[in-house]
Amino acid sequence: MRDMWRFFRRFGFKYKRNIVLNFVFNILTSLMTIFSFAFIIPILQMLFGISESHYDYIEPTTDNLKESLVNNFYYFIDHIISVSGASLALALLTALLIGMTLLKVGTAYLTDYFIIPMRNGIVRDLRETLYDKILSLPIGFFSNERKGDIISRVMNDVGEVENSVSSSLNALLKYPIMILVCLAMMIFISWQLTVFVFVLLPVAGFIMGRVGKKLKAKSLRQQQMAGSLLSTTEETIGGLRVVKAFNAEGHMERLFRQLTDAFYRLSNAVARRNALAHPMSELLGTIAIGAVLWFGGSLIISGNSTIDAAGFIYYMVIFYSIINPAKELAKTGYAMQRGLAALQRVDEVIDAENPIKSPAHPRDILPKGENSSIEFKDVSFAYEKVDGEEKRVLRNIELEIKPGQTVAIVGQSGSGKSTLADLIPRLWDVTGGSLLVNGVDVREADVTQLRSMMGIVNQEPILFNDTIYNNIAFGDPSATEESVIAAAKMANAHEFIMQTPEGYSTNIGDRGNRLSGGQRQRLSIARALLRNPSILILDEATSALDTESERLVQEALDRLMHSRTTIVIAHRLSTIVNADLICVLQDGRIVERGTHSELMNLQGAYHKLVMLQQM
Fold first, then answer.
1. Beta partners for 179?
2. Beta 581-586 vs 589-594: how paired, if at all?
3. If residue 433 lies in a helix (H) or strand (E), which one and from where to where?
4. What 8-state DSSP symbol labels residue 445?
5. Cβ-proximal residues to 370 (8 Å cutoff; 6+ apart), any chain
6. DSSP 8-state class, residue 585
7. What pTM does this model have?
8. CB 342 within 8 A of CB 130
9. Measuring CA to CA, how many Å separate 457 from each of 142, 249, 423, 556, 560?
10. Quick one: average pLDDT of 204-209?
11. According to the model, what pLDDT value does residue 53 have?
């Protein structure tokens, strides 16, 4: 229940108006239900001759409120029968019953009318919160999680919360009120029977609760396995070329069937336990009714009861009105356990710590001129601790990049080149030393302002399933059609764009799969050009291209790099011979630095890399 309260406090309190209105109309619905049943007693007692009592009007006081209300009600019915006949009294009682029922169903509808926006709104808010959190979390969080499992939490787990927890809110707001109102009326009719009921209901609730706790544990495992299924499916589709090339269809089929069989068995266990809710609540409800019938009947037969047979029937009708809400609450408890298991997985993302945040009072990091300076001061970095010890990827990096300077970072794979570049926009934070942009430590700057100064072109172009225009203008709400076309022309992309079926309105497909590698890269360059960044990061932007595509992309890059502070990570060393400074990384350290000619004259690590490529 604590998890449910935490969830409701986080997402439900903004709908206070809906809660209040739902509460008011739930009370009215319960009262209408109770008083509509009250017409059963006079019908039984007076119209069908069960009672021959005569009633006189009694002035109500605080001492005789219960007796006077009941007596005066019978007095008016008795008066109508004596004056106008039993038929008219029956018609009047029927009309009152219909009128009370109309009010009851009207207020019952209004309870749902006001709770529906809250229920759907909570699910919407949960999805938005989860998506916003995913966007804000650092890259490091997703390196430890499977992408398919994250997608499963956004879709499957939130869907389970929608089906279970949020749909249970109505029951939690409605049925307790009904039960309390009925119990109050039962105490009003006979406190002896009601004390007996108070002993029965907690016992039934305890039994249902014990079964529900086991359901939550199984449901949590079911949600985790659903995430594994989605991850395997996503990985299979993404790696289908490799699966087919290595004739691994059989292996993937066996792996997937093992997962689906385990999921099948677990789903059966959860569904069977969930299906137990209705028969168990039915059985416990029948046992409770039987016990009350026996106890109340014994009191009436022995003459020790404060109510007569007709009153006992009315009492049983009200008690039965508690049984259905109690059964629904029991089933709601089962549904909530499944939903809370899914919510636990969602909360793991929502509550994840985000170490990369803007400070409360950030310093201005914008350049004074057109370009920015970058300085690494004794920078070290480690992704995570291995066996209690940090395994550092970068060690004691000392590097100053002046405004407008082009610096190339080269080295073997795994030497830390891309990691060094990722530190500048704070995709990761340094674990030692400091990184300064325009003389300001990046940890003291606003993250959004810092990244707005940068244009990044990766080896693998990251494009979205949208139009060419929207991919170039991505992240720039102020972009105009003229500026987008101008950026495309500078990136050598305008010509091939105009050859597509719909020009700039052409959809490029998932990850741009309708375009060639060189075309995708030129769109990435156009996107960076449109931003007009003061810092440019090129992460092996031409290494995956053929010669013709590389020539077109390199021309575009030359325009993009002109008069900008640029960090170039390169495998093809021929593309960086004109760099102002070339740094050679080995095992996370800068082992050589200088211009192309200076490093070639050293006959060291850089010279060796150049000779290997020429070979």
1. none
2. antiparallel
3. strand 432-437
4. B
5. 403, 404, 534, 563
6. E
7. 0.69
8. no
9. 21, 35, 15, 12, 10
10. 62
11. 60
Name the token pair of 64: 């005789």
pLDDT at 386 over 50: no
| Cβ pair 111, 26 in contact under 8 A | yes
CA pair distance 574, 593, nearest whole angstrom:
17
Alpha-helical regions (H) of 64-85: 65-84
Structure token pair of residue 145: 């999680």
pLDDT at 379: 93
Q: Across-strand partners of 307?
A: none
4-19 residue pLDDT tens: 677 777 787 788 888 8
Each residue's pLDDT tens digit, 155-188: 777 777 777 766 677 777 788 888 888 888 888 8
**CB contact set of 242 (below 8 Å; sequence gap of 6+):** 248
Query: What single letter denotes the amino acid at residue 55?
Result: Y
Q: List alpha helices for 304-362, DSSP H.
A: 309-350
364 CB-near residues (< 8 Å, 6+ apart): 440, 445, 449
Residue 210 has pLDDT above 70, yes or no: no
Would you state the structure tokens that stand for residue 237, as one six-digit string?
A: 């589709």
CA 147 from chain centre, in angstroms, equals 15
Residue-level pLDDT at 263: 79
599 Cβ neighbours under 8 A, 6+ residues apart: 582, 584, 592, 593, 606, 607
- The single-letter code of the amino acid at 220 is L
Q: Where are the alpha helices (DSSP H) in 351-452?
A: 417-423, 447-452
The confidence score (pLDDT) of residue 590 equals 92
**Selection from 37, 36, 38, 98 nearest residue 74 by Cα:** 38
For the sheet containing 432-437, what is the strand order? 389-401, 374-386, 432-437, 440-441
Q: Would the pLDDT of 439 be above 70?
A: yes
